[in-house]
Specification:
InterPro entries: Met8-like, NAD(P)-bd_dom_sf, SirC_C, Sirohaem_synthase_central, Sirohaem_synthase_N. It is built from eight helices and seven strands. With about 200 residues, it is α/β, with parallel strands linked by helices. It binds ligand SHN and 1,4-dihydronicotinamide adenine dinucleotide. 1,4-dihydronicotinamide adenine dinucleotide (NAI) binds near residues 16, 62 and 78.
């Protein structure tokens, strides 16, 4: 399995099922602002709340293969294993499909992710142990403290400035490597000074 980073903003995501797991998958991707439709005979409080908050569509009945035609991502999250399997086998091979009770029937699974600004660390056990994945996520959550959020913004700003400087390729690489020194992450003043220095140099090389 190959990890890919996917842009779901404005994309159609159709979820069969309206229970705990349907809600969890939706809440994981909600930051990306996808256009989600839930299809299920019954919806949990969590799904109703998420939908009200984000304007998601709810269709109250059993899911049907035709429901997924326009979806970029399909999440099969009913508690009926045979319904999930039948829906999975009805889908074309070029659609992204997550089957929450039998990952081998689909072609994508969700990793656990820790987000700090522009940085995202994702963990997967390729379905072998979601518990291990969750444990490692908690460890990473502690390892990457809040300083990483402004630091990744600082790195992005510096990179934009450095790319435009009238210096050689090797000098740019040297500048970019220097930003990885830990003092830039832990010391806000060092970040401010560095940014000012780069801006001055850009204005007057
Ligand atoms: C294959 C995958 C498909 C997919 O859903 O994408 C899948 C499948 C299954 N999970 C099951 C169980 C549990 N999963 C969790 C938790 C998470 N599961 C997630 C992902 C994945 N789960 C994908 C691969 C992940 C990987 O590669 O490691 C996480 C990482 C991401 C997320 O959901 O966002 C999220 C933690 C995120 C976080 O903490 O942030 C918990 C814990 C809990 O719920 O508290 C339990 C109960 C305890 C247990 O059983 O271990 C079962 C058995 C169901 C049954 O009882 O029948 C199956 C079905 C099967 O085994 O195939
Ligand atoms: N991937 C994961 O991380 C995990 C997956 N699971 C699996 O996820 C499945 C769902 O679990 P929960 O959300 O907790 O169940 P739940 O009981 O909370 O919700 C099930 C939902 O499926 C709907 N449903 C049933 N038949 C349907 C159909 N034919 N079409 C559309 N919707 C239908 C119900 O109306 C309900 O909304 C479980 O069967 C379990 O095997 C469980 C834990 C973790």
């Amino acid at each position: 399995m190959q990890p890919l980073i996917i842009d779901l903003s404005g994309k159609k995501v159709v979820i069969a099922g309206g229970g705990r797991i349907a809600a969890r998958k939706a809440s994981v991707i909600q930051h990306e602002k996808p256009d989600i439709t839930f299809i299920a005979p019954e919806f949990s409080e969590e799904v109703l709340e998420l939908s009200l908050e984000n304007g998601y569509t709810l269709i109250q009945r059993k899911a049907d293969p035709a429901d997924f035609e326009q979806a970029m991502l399909v999440i099969l999250a009913t508690n009926d294993r045979s319904a999930n399997a039948a829906l999975a086998s009805s889908l074309p091979p070029n659609q992204l499909v997550c089957v929450v009770d039998e990952s081998g029937l689909g072609n994508v699974t969700f990793p656990a992710t820790v987000r700090r600004g522009h940085l995202q660390v994702a963990v997967t056990s390729n379905g072998s142990s979601p518990k291990l994945t969750r444990k490692l996520k908690r460890e990473l959550d502690e390892q990457f403290d809040a300083s990483w959020e402004p630091y990744t913004a600082f790195l992005a700003s510096c990179r934009t400035l450095i790319k435009d400087l009238p210096i050689s390729f090797d000098e740019k690489q040297e500048q970019l490597w220097e930003l990885l020194e830990d003092r830039y992450r832990t010391d806000t003043q060092a970040q401010i000074t560095k940014l000012k220095q780069l801006e001055l140099y850009r204005a007057d090389p």
